[in-house]
Every structure is written in structure tokens, then in C-alpha cells.
Specification:
- By secondary structure, the protein is mainly α.
- The protein has 3 domains: 59 residues, no CATH class; 68 residues; 140 residues.
- The chain is built from 8 helices and no strands.
- Helix 5 packs antiparallel against helix 6 and helix 6 runs antiparallel to helix 7.
- The longest helix is centred in the C-terminal third of the chain and has 47 residues.
- It is elongated.
- The chain starts with a helix and ends with a helix.
- The structure holds zinc ion (ZN).
Length: 296
């Protein structure tokens, strides 16, 4: 094998094989990243007839960079909203600590909590918008649907729980209240954060940020673990009764402290992942927009 052949083999290996046919020609609608020319049918080792840029360079671009600018700007908007939601959650948590000492903090905690919910709903809706003209892998689609629908489902169930409490509390019937309550807590604390971060990790895998994608995956698992701990803790009064809880007051304080610390670490980790994702998505958007301008 000659030096050129070895070079060509290495070059072909670095390209996503689904983009090429058996003759190593471009078998998909891939735009030249420099001029926007459609490279379909051109040899992978050739150059663009319009701008003489290497075809392989366009094929090696991260897959996300080839997505539409409209969809990418949605991702960016979603990430920004989720960052706002995290900020408001931090304010809620801080205000909740101060609540014990000052009443005005109650209003602030409530307001920031409501803001966090609204920003999460809008952010997740933007981040999980379907990608037009692209039939994603099944795994990606499952996680997109889970991330998209678990937060609004949590809010819906929370409203149902509040209504049921209003109806049943005077009669002290615990079962009709506890089932929707448990479902709300499970969806809100266990399913939603895990699904959203898991889907973010899948999106990041379509860029060159493999380490960031792994970090998002780790953050998802950490939040899942904390969510399960918190869920079990929230359900404790339903099984043991309020009276019995007083006996385990010290143990529960330790659990609450540890979960609080865990959420602080996860919050910081998620903020870092979202800040980096914002940077990655804005780069992909800039690449997509400049390609559109060139091809016009
Ligand atoms: Zn070109």
C-alpha cells in the first residue's frame, strides 16, 4: 500500500460511514462548510467544485453543526431558560433558609420558586423541540419525549394533588392524597431532572465535546440518585405516621443535610454543563447561520 493510500484510508476512517456509499462518495445531503454547496455524489477524498475546500473537512464537521439554524437557536434559548431557572432555584433555596428569621423572605421564595417552574417549562419545551426533516435514532427520540413531557406532567399532577387535598383533607383520607402526591414527587424529583440532563448529554454527543457529554451523563445519574433518596424520604410520613417520625429526628436531619449538600454539588455541576452547552450550541448556530448566508 502506498503512502497516499494509507493517508486516504485514515481519512475515510475519520468519516461517519453512513454518509458514504460503497464507492466512498457522499451519499447524503451534506453542505460544504465553506460555501454551502451540496456535496452529494462527490468523492470523499475530493474537493468542493465551488470553493476548492476539502470534502472530508465538511464530512468531519460535528453532526450538530449541520442542523438547521432555527432548531439550534431553540436549543440555545432552552439552555438560557434552564440557567435562569437554576438561578431562581438558588434564590428560593437561600430564601427558604432565611424564612425562619424574616417574613418578607417567604414572598421572595414563593416568587422565585414560581419563576423557576415557569423558566424550566419554557426551557425544556425549547430544548426538546423536534428536529424537522431528521428522523433521529430511537434512543434519542425516547429520551427527547421523556424530557419533553415529564416537567409539564409534574405540574399537572401537582395541581391535581392540590385539588384532592382541598377536597379530602377535612375527611382525613390519606390514600387519595398520597397516590398523586407520590406520583408528583417521583416525576418532579426523579424522572424530570434525569431525563432532561440525559437528553442534553445525547445532544452534546453530536458535537466534539465528548467529555462534556459524559459530565452531563454523570450529573443525570447523580440527580437520579438524589431524587430517589428524596422521594423515599418524602414518602416516609405516609408509611410511619407523623408521630413515629419524631423518634428518628436526628437521623432525618442527617439525611436532609446530605441531600441538601448533594443538590448543591449537582446544582453547580448542572450550571457548569449548561454554561458550556450554551457556548457549544452558539458555536453550532454561528456555523449553521454563516453556511446559510453563504448558500443564499
Ligand atoms: Zn465549497
Amino acid at each position: 500500500m502506498t503512502v497516499t493510500q494509507t493517508g486516504e484510508a485514515t481519512l475515510i476512517k475519520s468519516i461517519d460511514p453512513t454518509l458514504l456509499d460503497s464507492d466512498r462518495r457522499v451519499a447524503a445531503d451534506v453542505d460544504c462548510f465553506q460555501c454551502g454547496y451540496n456535496l452529494r455524489t462527490l468523492p470523499a477524498t475530493g474537493v468542493c467544485p465551488e470553493c476548492a475546500g476539502a470534502v472530508a473537512d465538511s464530512l468531519r464537521r460535528p453532526e450538530l453543526y449541520r442542523a438547521s439554524a432555527v432548531w439550534l437557536s431553540g436549543l440555545l434559548h432552552g439552555v438560557r431558560c434552564l440557567l435562569f431557572a437554576l438561578l431562581q432555584l438558588a434564590i428560593t433555596a437561600a430564601a427558604a433558609v432565611v424564612v425562619r428569621f424574616a417574613m418578607p423572605a417567604v414572598g421572595l421564595a414563593g416568587l422565585a420558586g414560581l419563576g423557576a417552574v415557569m423558566f424550566t417549562l419554557v426551557g425544556v419545551a425549547c430544548l426538546t423541540a423536534p428536529e424537522r426533516h431528521r428522523h433521529g435514532q430511537l434512543e434519542r427520540e425516547h429520551w427527547r419525549q421523556a424530557a419533553r413531557w415529564s416537567p409539564p406532567a409534574t405540574c399537572g399532577l401537582a395541581l391535581v394533588t392540590v385539588c384532592i387535598v382541598g377536597i379530602f383533607l377535612p375527611a382525613r383520607v390519606s390514600l387519595p392524597v398520597s397516590v398523586p402526591f407520590a406520583a408528583t414527587v417521583f416525576l418532579g424529583l426523579v424522572v424530570s431532572p434525569f431525563a432532561v440532563l440525559r437528553y442534553l448529554a445525547i445532544l452534546l454527543r453530536r458535537t466534539r465535546e465528548a467529555a462534556l457529554a459524559r459530565l452531563a451523563g454523570h450529573a443525570a445519574v447523580a440527580l437520579l440518585t438524589l431524587g430517589i433518596m428524596n422521594f423515599l424520604h418524602a414518602l416516609l410520613p405516609l408509611f410511619t405516621g407523623i408521630q413515629a417520625l419524631h423518634q428518628f429526628r436526628d437521623l432525618r436531619l442527617i439525611v436532609v443535610g446530605l441531600t441538601g449538600l448533594g443538590y448543591l454539588v449537582c446544582g453547580l455541576l448542572s450550571t457548569y454543563v449548561l454554561l458550556r452547552s450554551r457556548h457549544v450550541f452558539s458555536q453550532a448556530l454561528a456555523a449553521s447561520e454563516s453556511r446559510r448566508v453563504r448558500s443564499d
